[in-house]
Amino acid sequence: MSAPRPGAARRPVVVRHALPAPPERVFRLFTDGADLQRWFCDAIDAEPREGGLIHAAWQDDDGGPWDRMGRFAVFEPPRRVVIEWQAIDAPGDPADPAQPASLKDAGTPDRLQVAIVGDGAGGSTVTVVAPLPVADAAVRDEVRMEAAQAGWAQTFEALAALLAADVNR
């Protein structure tokens, strides 16, 4: 297997999962800064609207910063959101616009697509289309795909637990 050409399209990971909440609530899980910080990242600045900016920050296992920055390319509550974003080379502070970040790669941004459909019984089915993570060329696409799907399955389990905790408050 050869390494992908720079700028070449990567295979997407497609996952579908049911969540025990109406589409309006599930949509907020993927767009509202406070909700995103509960399950997705360590810090975030998000303008949940079409064209709104989003800057998410994490601490990696060694305590180093890891950031992504982009925009809400599509914002159609409560059924569809698309985030286009890229890794950041020089992280800023998501809570402080005076400390801007710079993009690591000015190429094509990754697209995280989320579609939500009500199930008619108070729950929702969520479909996520995300780029297959880049890895060492020696790792087969099938192995990376299985790992990404397993990661999304864990994410949906965590989201279901978060929604259940909200109901029990």
**Strand content of the residues, in percent?**
35-45%
Order of helices and strands: EHHEEEEEEEH
Would you tell me which CATH topology applies? Alpha-D-Glucose-1,6-Bisphosphate, Chain A, domain 4
By helix and strand content, what is the structural category?
A: alpha+beta
CATH homologous superfamily caption: START domain
Summarize the amount of helix as a percent range. 25-40%
Mean of residue pLDDT values: 84
Oligomer: single chain
Write down the overall geometry: globular
CATH architecture descriptor name: 2-Layer Sandwich
Total of helices = 3
Taking all Cα atoms into account, the compactness measure Rg is: 17 Å
- Unreliable residue runs: 1-8, 100-104
**Between the first and last Cα atoms, what is the distance in angstroms?**
51 Å
CATH C-level label:
Alpha Beta
Number of strands: 8
In this structure, how is the largest beta sheet organized? 8 strands, antiparallel
Number of domains: 1
